[in-house]
Hints:
alpha+beta; Periplasmic binding protein-like II
Amino acid sequence: MLKIILLAIVNAVAVWGGTVLAADEKWVALGVLAAATLALDAIYLSPRRAIPLKFLIPGTVFLIAFQIVPIVYNVNVGFTNWSTGHILVKSEAIEGIKRNSLGQPADGTAYSMAPARDADGELVLLLVDEADGKSYVGTTEELRPLDEGALKLGEFGTIESASGYQIVRGGDLLALDKELAGFTVPTASGAIRAEGTETALELAPT
């Protein structure tokens, strides 16, 4: 009775795996799975034949699962684009190197900052130079000056509102954490990058 229950479980798992393989059009793997399942049924349902195989197969299955498969998987990962050094495409890798090679120079400019959305819903950085009070809007393509009075500042110099832009606040601001970390505004001498949610610094290549 126990043998029948175990075989039923094996066959149920095989049917589930077969549907997944068929959906992915993995016909060779599906054929191997079907043949292996039928072979197991034939071996364990035969009353007296293939008795040695009944004891050999469990060990063989575990050998394949815990020795052969990990070796093949690691070799495949090591020599294909699944390896650690190939997670990013070339353009993403270059951009990451540029971003990580930026550092704050001694005379770098500091800005009060507020992340915002423009009329098209694109993320921009509203910036106020802490040295001269000039205001700018930064995108991933350029830094543009804003007209005087375009930004309304609070008592402590924080940006409260901006004409033509919707400042990101509350939970939406917290959700921007990853996007802000990779957001840089190109400048003539380097780039401006957000440091937190209220400050940005002008960085230069190190």
